Amino acid sequence: MALLVLPRALDASVEQLPNVGPLNAKRLAKLGIKTVRDLLLTLPFGFETYGGPTEIATLEPGTQATVVGIVTSVTAKITRNRRMKLTEAVLGDGSGGKLRIAWFNQMYLAKQLHKGDRIAVAGTVKRGYAGLLEMQNPHHEKLAADEEVQPSRVGGLMPKYHLVDGLTSRRIASWVSSALPLADHIEDLLPEEVRAPHHLLGVVEAVQRGHRPEGDAEFREARRRMAFAELFELQAAFATMRANIALEPATKIPYRQDVIDAFKTGLGFDLTTAQRKATWDAFKDMDRAVPMNRLLDGDVGSGKTAVAAACAAMVHAAGMQSVVMAPTEILARQHLRRFRAYLEASFPDLRVELLVSGLGAPERRRVRTAAASGHCALVVGTHALIEDDVEFANLGLAVVDEQHRFGTRQRELLRAKGQGRPHFLAMTATPIPRTLALASYGEMTLSVIDEMPPGRTPVETEVIEPDERDRAYDLVRAEIRAGHQAFVICPLIEESEVLAAKSATAEYERLKKEVFTDLELGLIHGRLKEKDDVMQRFVAGEIQVLVATAVVEVGVDVPNATVMMIEGAERFGLAQLHQFRGRVGRGSAASRCLLLSSDTTESSLERLTLLTRIADGFTLAEEDMRIRGMGELMGARQHGMSDAAMESLRTPELLSEVRQEAERVLASDPGFEHHPLLKAAVARRLELTSIS
Ligand code: ADP
Ligand code: MG
């Protein structure tokens, strides 16, 4: 193959490999695989071990096996109850047994396979209908009739790669095969002095063994090396960022006891211990000439806003301004009310203003002028804040709420609104395990609010299977009768059109006509112009049932809402479901969360059941991680990490070791000048984060 002798072949697009083509290249790109090097560096996440061909008569249900046999029948049909497309075949091998094969949603197979074909299948053996042995969705390979011909592509050890629609592990494995001869040329980014003490394989060996291990031990060694290298690269980038940030001067915000005393007096409640600790962390950071760069992570309703307000008060006392950016207008308006309530009584000259694009031009101009002249101490708003014409006289603090909803670029634009570098506080209500937070937000310091304000009743959560839907509606009705309000959440309209079974609009119409005919319904979704209007009517109690997409995910506070019904719950991550659930249980009345799932497989139900048992977001995240692995928990790509790296974080000491190594190398070689590969990788990471 000519490709293999080209220099720089590792940097070539995967499209250059045989049988990839533009469509598959696009699919691979979704997995973060663009070049041949990327492909080689992406190890399988596991292997299926089917072993060599076994006779049907000796198959054991519950095991993985390879079977070679003759097709005795093939039929295509649609299943009656779940309306799935099914290709069914029966296989015999002369051993006296029969094996039923069922392939779902692969109708083309019915055309490709014929009675009398000799094929190999590899899959898990089950005891199926009428006691017949069966395999569902096995891998298969058509073989020549000649008995001598053995399967070459199925059976034995088969790698499992992460996939997107249209790809199979087998196809990826075949592309890896054609690229594998190039593995010898992959350069090692891990310095020898880091590799040796941790007994890590070199990159070439890791790639070769990782895709083609002799056994499980070899595979795990290869994965460990890859995960370490990836975390190391990431931590090297974070160490560089921290070093860069520390170079830029910020204005010190001196700590003043009288300010915090006044703040507490005006607040109307006592700060929780966790809030006090987070506030104190931030005050210490801001009292330095190095800009604060802190992430405040706390469950929905844990009271992050009060911490931000305390910071704004301190910044104001130092004669500087603060800005708070939220992802939606609804949330920005709620912040406006809340910051005013927290601050204006104790600090009469601390003006809080709102800047969102929904404002009229004269009002926008007025707020812009107030910000630019230094007249207002705190501006809360949405993306409208980062427009060019918004300026601040002397910005001391920038806060981003629900920070995961913004790109790095947007956060940077907000920070750039100051003359120097403002202190920076990011807030998130995505409780994630501490190690993961440190691994993925390594350039920030972390404060965790792991305590709820007193007086909350936990939300009673229930998983409701499809045939119990009416019971869910009855529960909703009962709450409404008691004078409360309800949310019905549908899968997002625009973000996942493919997966969204019901658009919120259709669901709203249906509920109005067929289910809650006597109730006042409202609809809210991202594309709706009159979002705020609808929300106001819900807050005012005029709407009894609010049908919504994920817009309401973020911190809207309606204490009278006591029931949250979530459609297609299995499609959301647990963290997101937990966030939805946080919309209720905000008042003193007992609240419910009803998770409707159309996926009744055991694993899916088990996952949802976690929510019924666990009320605390952090514990939930840890449990979800234990069950599914970190990668799936958060979406590895979202954290810029492979699942192998995520997985390795389960060893808690690993991260701090990697971090120390990265810092040690950076300290001995500032800018990684003597580690060119590492330098380039770090530069790439930094560039990625600045445009994401
Ligand atoms: P988060 O933004 O972390 O989800 P909020 O800041 O919106 O939470 O706070 C949720 C609610 O709890 C608000 O109504 C807030 O006024 C109230 N709250 C916050 N801290 C306390 C506290 N220490 N004691 C009582 N209520 C509090
Ligand atoms: Mg909030």
Domains (count) = 4
Tell me the Rg in angstroms: 29 Å
CATH topology of the largest domain: Rossmann fold
The CATH architecture classification of the largest domain is 3-Layer(aba) Sandwich
Query: Counting H and I runs of at least 4 residues, what is the number of helices?
Result: 24
Q: How many extended strands?
A: 21
- Compute the average pLDDT: 87
> What is the CATH superfamily classification of the largest domain?
P-loop containing nucleotide triphosphate hydrolases
Would you give an account of this structure?
With 692 residues, the chain is an alpha/beta fold. It has four domains: 1-45 and 170-182, Orthogonal Bundle (DNA polymerase, domain 1), CATH 1.10.150; 48-160, Nucleic acid-binding proteins (OB fold (Dihydrolipoamide Acetyltransferase, E2P)), CATH 2.40.50.140; 257-449, 3-Layer(aba) Sandwich (Rossmann fold); 459-614, Rossmann fold (3-Layer(aba) Sandwich). Helix content is 39%, strand content 18%. It is built from 24 helices and 21 strands. The chain has a seven-stranded parallel β-sheet, sandwiched between helices. A six-stranded parallel β-sheet has the order 16-21-20-17-19-18, with helices on both faces. A hairpin with a 5-residue loop joins strand 5 and strand 6. Helix 10 crosses helix 11 (329-343). The two termini are 37 Å apart. The structure holds adenosine-5'-diphosphate and magnesium ion. Magnesium ion binds at residues 304-305, 401, 555. Residues 269-272, 275, 298, 300-306, 429, 453, 555, 557 line the site of adenosine-5'-diphosphate.
